[in-house]
Amino acid sequence: MKKIYKDYYFAILTIILLAISLFLHLWQMGKVPNGFFIDESSIGYNAYSILKTGRDEYGILYPLFFRAFDNYQDPVMVYCLVPFLKFFGLNKAIVRLPSAIFHIFASLLFALLVYEYLRDKLISILSAFYFSVLPWSFCLSRTVFSGYTPMLLGLTGGVLFLLKAFRKRSIHLAIFSAIFFAFAMYSHNCGRPIAAIMILSFLIVFNKSLIKRWKIICAMFLTLSLLSLPIAIAFFYNPACLTARFKEISLYHNSSNILEFLSGVFIRYLEYFSPIFLFFTGDNNLRHNTGVGQLYIFLLPLFLLGIYFLWKKFKNPYYSLIFLFTLTYPFAAVLTKDHFHGTRTVNGTITFTLISAMGLKFLYLKMKKYKWFEIMLLSVIVFSGIEIFYYLKDYFGGYVERSRGAFNAPLVEIIESAFYERKENETIYISSSLFHHPVDKNFKPEWYSHFLFLGKIEPAIYQHYGIPPEIVSHYSSKQIPQSGLLLRMNTTILFDSEFKTKIVVFNNEKMPESVLLLKKIPLIKDSNMFFELYRF
Hints:
Blueprint: H1 7-26, H2 38-53, H3 75-88, H4 92-118, H5 121-132, H6 135-141, H7 148-168, H8 171-187, H9 191-205, H10 214-237, H11 240-249, H12 258-271, H13 275-280, H14 299-312, H15 317-328, H16 331-334, H17 348-367, H18 371-395, H19 398-402, H20 409-421, E1 428-430, H21 448-454, H22 459-465, E2 472-474, E3 485-489, E4 491-495, E5 502-506, E6 516-522, E7 530-535
């Protein structure tokens, strides 16, 4: 260990861990996970639309928030994608790339945050590596549902530079902190309440020092207020840009009375501290997690030792701040109707990994005095390597097949095949059997984004006329077209008059007389339900 602490060996270790992390984040980016979720195609196409026309899919000139599926996407990920699309073109891997890059930078800032607390280079770089491959955020870093990883970057940087600003009495660092917090607020809707809670926690803990460092606080708040002004203006003119998504997922709007709401909040709060969620099963949505805990099991003893480490230093506001961050980390998620939601609590990666790093520091200090602590430290490091290896083996192995349905992989693949097979002036006809709920003539409310993205429909044309019917059109068995490509399923879903009850039956819609099956893809492995592509 003494050798590792020397600059030469430390630099080599840092480069190796960074190279491994980069490889894991970027390898097979467009193929793992399989498929492409509607949020991904929507963000990608809106960035493509901005690149081509300066307007979003609805024709709004450089909007602050993107209407998308009427739940409004935040701007950071869309605008950051634009230069990537300019140089590399519109494809799945490039759309996912910025998410991975933001996560790598968040990990580097996290190393600096750990060093700010522990003054230990080795533990800082090890913690950053663990942070970069944590199940809680690794899945999110290889997809682009929204700006979760830039939000992580913003929150990590905001805390880091605020602590540095207070310690060094630096107005410049306070301004940097405000910039990072504002970046988190523009990255994802969860970033706004989480950043506010973190700043409030800081003010509560450092209340005795605020008067002496009032210039620092004023500089931070003034900068943050100026940077947040566009959000306030956007809300004034269109409140839905900030409230539409929350109304959709709000626990309050899904509760019959105030007591049900409060009990729901309390239950969810406890759930987010459950070992089941944190270390064993985690979020059961396969878009968010592979089926393991949000944290690695090897972090559990380190986390408990870190809590003890924190308790001994609790009177120091720098350490009591971490306690308060931990207690408040799920506040953005407990107000929503979902249980065990990993993405809305992804800020927990900062505090739980930081506390675990403190536990690692505690072990390192104690091993000098007690031999069995050295054995324990070595065991944790060995077990961490084994657990991370098996997690990644599953992520790039079994999870790829397991998560196909969660990422609409069969549907995406059949649409990709249709555009690949399409000849000039040939129309792709879409059967209603392709979707599991009714859609309108523009394939809304959601699935249209796949046709826009995978077909690379010209944004200027779509903004004025919608999806060109000569490229993609609805199929009607009552008026069968003469030629083209047909996308359908061999089964179909019947709805009642209110579109609630669903019954799966064999698809008996009338087909063109001369059809050639080009491809069929099972809905799930070994299923007798298929997506089918025909030429007629």
